[in-house]
Amino acid sequence: MAAGLAPRPRGGRGAGRFGGAAVRGSRAQGLSARASSGPSPGGRRDALTCSAQWYGPIRSRSEVPVPATPQSRPRTGRFTARLAALAVVFGLAFAVLPSGATAAPEHRPARFPVSERQFERMFPERDAFFTYDGLVAAAAEFPAFARTGGTVTRRQEAAAFLAQVSHETGGLRYVVAQDESTYPIFCDDTQPYGCPAGNDAYYGRGAIMLSWNFNYQAAGDALGLDLLNNPWLVEQDPEVAWLTALWYWNTQTGQSTMTGHQAMVRKAGFGETIRALNGPECDGGSPEQVAHRVDLYRQFTRLLHTPPGRALSC
C-alpha cells in the first residue's frame, strides 16, 4: 500500500509455488539464522528519506643465418602452445558431434531487463535498505519473472512490478507501513495457526508491503522461511524484502483471475496487475490511487524504452 494510506488486505491465502524456483536450502537456512534476533528496538525504520606476431628465422640476403637476438628470437614455444590448445578445444568440439551435426548454442539465462543505473533513476530517494543486488538475487529465484517472451514483454513486466513497488513504498522510501494504528487489524485469528508473533506483528513490510498473518504463513512456506513466527525478517533482510514481493507477484491473484506475472505475459494489461495487488481500488474504488500506479508504470516504460501496452487501468 502507498505510504500514508492504511494497508489493504491481500488476496490469496493459500501457499503459492513459483515454477521450480524454490529458494536454495543453504541460503534459506542462512536467512532464517539471521532472523533470530526479532524486532529491533522501536521497530525497523519508521520513515527514512530521503554507478604477437611470430617471426620465422631471420635470414640475410645471402641467406646466411643470423644469430637470434633477444628481440628477434622466434617465439615458437608460445605460438605452438596456443595452437595446441586451440587444436584440443576444436578437436573435442568436433569429437563429441556426430557427422553432419552442428553444436547447439550455449544457453544463458536472460539478463534482468533493468540496469542498476536505471534502477537508481527510478528510485532516486530510496532507503538504502532496498538494494539493486537484493532485487537481482531475488529475481533469479523466479526464472519466469521478467524473462518470459520477447524484449518488450520482459521490459513491460519489470516496469509493471517496479511501478507497483514504487506506489506501495513511496518510491522505496519506506520499509514498513507508516500508519501504526492499523497494525492490529492484520491478524486473522480465525486461522488455525493464529498470530504467534503478536496480533500487531503482521503489518505491511518489504517491497510490496506484505501484510496479514496468512500471507506471511504462505510466503514463508513457499520460501522456506519461518515468517509466521518471525515476520520482522522481511524488514531486516533486503533480499527477503524482495523475495516476498516477487512471491506475491508471481503466485497470488488477489481479486483478479491471474497473477501480476500472468497479466503481463498474457498481455492482459497493467490494469489487471492492480486488481491482483489491490483489487478494491478498481472499478471506481480509488481512482486517484489507480491513476498514480498507471503514471508510475508509464514513467518506467519510458525509462526502459518500451511501449506500455494496452488496458492500463482497472
TrEMBL record:
Residues 1-48 are annotated as: Disordered. PANTHER family: CHITINASE 12 (PTHR22595:SF79), CHITINASE-RELATED (PTHR22595). It comes from Streptomyces triticagri. The keyword Disulfide bond applies. SUPFAM superfamilies: Lysozyme-like. Keywords: Disulfide bond, Membrane, Plant defense, Transmembrane, Transmembrane helix. One of its GO terms (molecular function) is chitinase activity. This is Chitinase. Coiled coil: none annotated. One of its GO terms (biological process) is chitin catabolic process.
